[in-house]
Write a structure and sequence with these properties.
alpha+beta; START-like_dom_sf; eight-stranded antiparallel beta sheet; ASHA1/2-like_C; 4 helices; SRPBCC domain-containing protein; Alpha-D-Glucose-1,6-Bisphosphate, Chain A, domain 4
């Protein structure tokens, strides 16, 4: 596998943001589909060794994705994404939160706004993700939870998944 693909993980503690730039060896439509279709997300989303299952997904403005990341021992970590704006194969914005199996948003764990942009780089695609937290405390909580390693592992899984498409 090609290992010189762009991967930037930048933390800005003044703006309470994480910016991730990631290059993929695939055209933009395919990467867009991998990010926006539950049948594809369930095959790569989440860090190793977790698996992902979608409970419900409605990819449209004001729609949602309700999913669980599952450890090999069966422990489930539920998430809820609410889609705010969508411009197909260019970008979407969303609110991302931890939830329970019923879709009730956690009050104890940070929520964030995500802006995910897809651009061409020759035959490849760059996905730029800007994640904005309400406070420095929320940002630091997510970093301590392993966000950088989790994103690296998750995006490497997408690389592997793309090889089999």
């Amino acid at each position: 596998m090609k290992t010189n693909l762009q991967f930037d993980f930048l933390v800005d503690k003044e703006k309470n943001t994480i910016t991730i730039n990631r290059e993929f060896l695939a055209e933009r439509q395919l990467i867009w589909d991998c990010y926006t279709k539950s049948e594809l997300l369930d095959q790569w989303f989440g860090p190793e060794p977790l698996s992902t299952k979608t409970k419900s997904m409605d990819f449209r403005e004001n729609g949602h994705w309700h999913y669980a990341m599952i450890e090999p021992n069966g422990t489930e970590y539920w998430g809820w994404t609410k889609y705010l704006t969508i411009k197909p194969i260019e970008y979407y914005t969303s609110l991302d939160a931890f939830s329970n199996e019923k879709g009730e948003i956690s009050k104890e764990l940070p929520q964030a706004k995500w802006e995910v942009t897809f651009t061409d780089k020759g035959d490849n695609t760059i996905v730029k993700t800007i994640i904005v937290y309400d406070s420095l405390e929320d940002l630091e909580t997510i970093i301590k939870m392993g966000m950088q390693d989790g994103m690296l592992s998750t995006l490497e899984r997408l690389d592997k998944f793309l090889l089999n498409l």
